[in-house]
Each structure stands twice: as C-alpha cells, then as structure tokens.
Design goal:
Elements lengths: L8 E5 L5 H13 L3 E6 L2 H9 L4 E5 L11 H6 L8 E5 L5 H8 L5 E3 L2 H5 L3 H9 L3
Parallel strand pairs: 1-2, 2-3, 3-4, 4-5
Helix pairs in contact: 4-6
C-alpha cells in the first residue's frame, strides 16, 4: 500500500515487530523497490535489525514509553552499526551543533521535524544543518 501511494521508504519499528515479521517486511520492501528505514532504540534492537538484514537503520532518540528525548542514545548506538549500514538519527536534532556532535559518532542522515516546525526561519535552520561537514 505504501508503494502504491507513492512512498519511497517504509518505516519498520523493531520494537513493534517480531524478528520473523521484520525479516518478512524487509524482503517485501526489497521485492517492490521500497527502501526500509529500520528504527531502533537500544542495543538489543540494533542486533535484531542487523540480524534481519537491515541496511538503513534509524536510531530514535525518543523513548517510546516516556516520549523523553536524549540524543546520547545515538552516541551510544551508532558505533554498533557496521560501515555498510546507512545511519539515520531520529528525534532531538535541534540545530547544526547537534548535527556536528552526532557526525562524530558516524551519523550520516538526520530526520528532523519538530525543530523545523518550531524555527522562526526553517529554511535558514535547514541550511545551517546541511552545511555541517
């Protein structure tokens, strides 16, 4: 359904899936040319995602139980991801300082929403984030 609706990427949340379901969904995505962003929150979920063959892994800094955000979660988990994995940081990236901080831990992509919505000048904020080497 996501592909038919024009989506290029599906979000697969490890915490909500069994390993069998995750592997099946990764295979289904691949078979129809849909990328899969596999979301993790802790070390165990990282291992599960890797074992199922995920090649794009998003570290969500938002605790799903409390909704608290802590970007040190990405600092802790990103080093567990092998070089072949595209690394995405999700939640809590508020500005170029956070981008620079997380690049040191291997982050290559950032999912930013709230910071842009709240910014007085979203275009300037995004430009500053993208400019970080």
């Amino acid at each position: 359904e996501a592909r038919l609706a024009g989506a290029d990427v599906a979000l697969l949340i490890v915490a909500a899936l069994t390993d069998v379901a995750l592997a099946d969904l990764l295979g289904a995505c691949a078979s129809i040319g849909l990328e899969a962003l596999v979301e993790v929150h802790d070390e165990e979920e990282v291992q599960r995602a890797l074992a199922c063959g995920a090649d794009i892994i998003g570290v969500n800094n938002r605790d799903l139980a409390t909704f608290e955000v802590d970007i040190s979660v990405s600092e802790r988990l990103l080093p567990f991801l092998p070089a072949r994995v595209r690394r995405v940081v999700e939640s809590g990236v508020r500005g170029p300082e956070d981008v620079a901080r997380l690049r040191k831990f291997g982050a290559s992509n950032f999912l930013v929403g709230e910071a842009l919505v709240r910014a007085a000048n979203p275009q300037a904020l995004l430009g500053a984030m993208v400019a970080v080497p």
